[in-house]
Amino acid sequence: MSHPVIAGVDGSPSSLDAVGVAAGEAALRNVPLRLVHALGGPARPGGSEYRGDGDHEPMVGDTLDRAAAEAEKAAPGVRVERSVVTGGATEALESETRSAALAVVGGRGLNGFSELLLGSTAVHLAAHGHCPLVVVRGRPDPSGPVVLAVDGSPAGQAAVEFAFAEAALRKAPLVAVHVWNTWNERAYAGPGDPLAAVVADIDRIREAEGDLLEEALTQARAAHPEVEVETRLVQARVRNTLIETSREARLMVAGTRGRGGFTGLLLGSVSQALLHHAHCPVAVVRG
Predict the structure, then answer these.
(1) What is the pLDDT of residues 85-100, one digit of tens each?
(2) Which helix (H) or strand (E) element contains residue 34?
(3) Which residues contact 132 (CB under 8 A, 6 or more apart)?
(4) In whole angstroms, what is the distance from residue 271 CA to residue 122 CA?
(5) By the 8 A CB rule, do 33 and 81 touch?
(6) Alpha-carbon distance 68 to 23, whole Å?
(7) Are 284 and 254 in contact (CB under 8 A)?
(8) Tens-place pLDDT, residues 128-160
(9) Is 221 exposed, middle or buried (0-12, 13-18, 19+ CB in 10 A)?
């Protein structure tokens, strides 16, 4: 069986935007789109589906009907499945990600506070989901390349592979960006004045970071020779640079934690910054 693309549906404009993106992703993969609506209340064992015996049915049916219509509009002919489950949205969607190829959610749902930039469901799935997650934000119909934030970590290889596959599916170019600076790198080794060593070793650091970027892409380049790749090695502030680069992207792809992440954190500061501030949809891929 083909793993579906899933979309969280709550009737909000944000979730309908997510349905449109999810429908396109399902069509590209030739897999079903599963619309998931959570009723709230105590979850049933194993996340079992709600069979319908209360006053919620007309409202739920209308919500899913509108979502299905949005899916058909975005990707005519896409196969649509409906899943109505008991329990909270975060728990329901996390359970659904165990058998999904991709999860897509809006930035904020009906319960979001206007001052919050990102909903709790999106944050939870980015940290705990079992498949890649796309959070729909920014421009409603983005164009341009797929942009990959390369951190050079072993866990980040999953994001590299996902970004190449996405570029291949979309027949889009890929821009691989590695941002570095002397604040988060080991700039010198051995005794001496650290500041002087930073100045003396800056060329060595740049060369090492360039090698790291090329090495991170080697296997994925070989697997996807059809993808046009541009590499960018940038010395700057990481989060600000990637957020600004997202202005030109149709999709920004990042791992959950880079080389500087603390082992106890499930979601790093760079991926969090992109989820909150990027100008296009963001894919977060756990290693």
Answers:
(1) 888 888 889 999 999 9
(2) strand 33-38
(3) 102, 103, 162, 283, 284, 285, 286
(4) 12
(5) yes
(6) 9
(7) yes
(8) 999 999 999 887 677 899 999 999 888 899 999
(9) middle
Total residues belonging to the chain: 287
Q: Tell me what pLDDT residue 140 has.
A: 63
138-158 in b/e form (b: 16+ CB < 10 A) is beeebebbbbbbbbbbebbbb
H helical segments located in the chain: 13-29, 57-74, 89-96, 120-128, 157-170, 194-223, 238-245, 269-277
Helix (H, G, I), strand (E, B) or coil at 190: coil
Q: How many CB atoms lie within 10 A of CB 193?
A: 10
Rounded distance, CA 227 to CA 229, Å? 6
pLDDT value for 278: 93
Distance CA 240, CA 247 (A): 12
Question: Could you list the mean pLDDT of each consecutive 10-residue stretch along the chain, which spans 287 residues?
Answer: 90 91 96 92 46 54 94 97 88 92 81 48 88 88 91 91 97 96 56 49 90 97 98 94 95 78 55 91 90
Cβ neighbours for 236, distance < 8 A, ≥ 6 positions apart: 179, 181
